[in-house]
Amino acid sequence: MGYAIKTEGLTKTYKDKVAVDGLTLSVYEGELIALLGVNGAGKTTTVRMLTCLTNPTGGRAEILGHDDNTYYPLHGRGSGAGRQDRHNDRRQSQGGRNTGRT
Asked: Which of 27, 35, 90, 97 is a Cys-bridge partner for 5, taking CB atoms 3.0 to 4.6 Å apart?
């Protein structure tokens, strides 16, 4: 089995704030992981970079063997990862309850 996710020195900065600092990570296909950390540790930013919702400022990432900068396999490709906007989801219109109505 190959790598599902592989990052080398993945970095994201916002002005003078370093959100992710040189993340190197290898996850094999079929392996389950969890990103744990305190508030502000860079968990959400890491997932946003891996799903191509934001660009890294340094380093590189491969998803299923494809360079994350040229191929977007996790963004809208049946992986279950992607944006969800509660305000545009009509099923969430009943006080946040999923009523099943459309």
From this structure: 27
Q: Say how far apart CA 58 and CA 87 lie, in whole Å.
A: 33
Tens digits of residue pLDDT in 11-68? 999 999 999 999 999 999 999 999 999 999 999 999 999 888 889 999 999 988 877 6
Q: What is the largest CA-CA distance in the chain?
A: 45
Q: What are the C-alpha distances in Å from 68 to residues 31, 65, 76?
A: 19, 9, 14
The highest-confidence range among 16-20, 50-54, 79-83, 96-100, by mean pLDDT, is 16-20
| Structural domains of the chain, with CATH | 3-88 (3.40.50.300)
Rounded CA separation 15/36 (Å): 24
